[in-house]
Amino acid sequence: MTARREPSAPPALPGHEHVRLLGLGGFADVFLYRQDLPRREVAVKVLLAGSMDDDVRRRFRTEANLMAQLSHHPSIVTVYQADIAADGRPYLVMEYCSRPGLAERYRTERIAVAEALRIGIRLASAVETAHRAGILHRDIKPANVLTTDFGWPALTDFGIAATTGPDGAATVGMSIPWSPPELLGEHPTGDARSDVYSLAATVYSLLAGRTPFELPGGQNTAQQLVARIERAALPPTGRADVPASLQQVLERAMAKHPARRFPSAAALGRAFQQVEAELRVPVTPLDLTDEPAPPAAAERADHPDATRLRGIVAVDPVAPTGAPVDDDRTRVRGAVQVTPEAPPAGPGPRFEVPAEVEDEVEAAPSGRGRVVAGVVAGVVVLAAAGGAIAVAAQGSGSADAGPTTTALAPAPPPTVGGAVPSPTELAGARQADGSVVFRWTNPDPQQGDQYVWGVRQATGEPTLALVGTTTVTVPAAQASGQVCIEVSIVRADRRESVRPTEGCTA
User: Fold this and answer.
1) CA distance 6 to 24
2) Mean pLDDT in residue range 80-91
């Protein structure tokens, strides 16, 4: 067992009185100080003297700038000051979060489903805000989520997690239990969907009391965890009070292939909101600058408590123990550059037009949203672009029928209805010409329902298409041997099945 290292000496900081050690890190220690003016307690993160090479200094400065840029968000730790101590060590003065963080709680407490959802939505808001600013976190885990004095989760540790800039380094660090498969390979690559995975893995830990692929009482070496993350199905949380819809949300957010996940942190947050509505608990707002607030509670009028006022739930304060925390530390990794994008218009997947059909695409007006364009052999191909949704569909499957285009207005805010179900009774039948016709049933049809479907490929993710009927045809040219497709229901407000239905035919 590795011996616990001794903490570094707290530096003398002008206008600050050292109180005690808060935690040990791989590259920095965190101390509690009492600031003289304005009078308050603050957390001071001090770089270790032995780790001050040029790269670490650069990343430390980056952390200060990124957290200052994002710290207006209520679920991101606020940075007050950055400077160099008299002994030459760089330091950050940050908001002191006095309550136990998630790393201290998830192993020792049974966290209620409603609280886990509330934390997940607030963190999704923080992560989405970072992504819109062009910043990937890349190390979301319980140890990097503190708790403010008012009980809000507060994301921290952006320094070694992500930066913007042209000099992204090739090295990558990770916290294996919460890392997606694409960050565990020999040549790690990741994007916003990698943060979506880690955020969902963190919520899973809050519910299960363990990391997602940890075997209680079993062998859990780093090599074994990596193998399970890359190949094993996500196990159930083991809690009877976790609804199936929440398990499905977590499974989608933690899919092995990034294309199978929610396309953004905001989309994951909306999926959590739908589960809240299903459970009839108050729907937690997404704290985004352009996000409309949901109703205060997702309850029907006939619910017994529908018109009763709820009191404030008091949480007994937990006295700080002063014990340093240094588990789940992160190895050094370089920077990742991401391009800021306009926020996605809805929780649905991002679609791309294959190169072979680009010349058949009809563009929709520019603006926010997604464009659905292109008709090839009766398949409607979708392109990720701005604008209202334009649906091009062939009439009655005729090969020479001209496409018709209809436009939908921008989607309204997500509803607080229950989770969108998956299609049922999916079955395929091979036709005399070699094509395969698939049919399915919508178990809860609603006005405006459409369906996203695609042919499953052995070597990659399907190219998804949008149709308005419960029947599709896979042309003979694409239907040699076994043919498998996946189908999801898409509501008029852009909500969709949290998990697609898959079916095959010989």
Assistant:
1) 9
2) 88
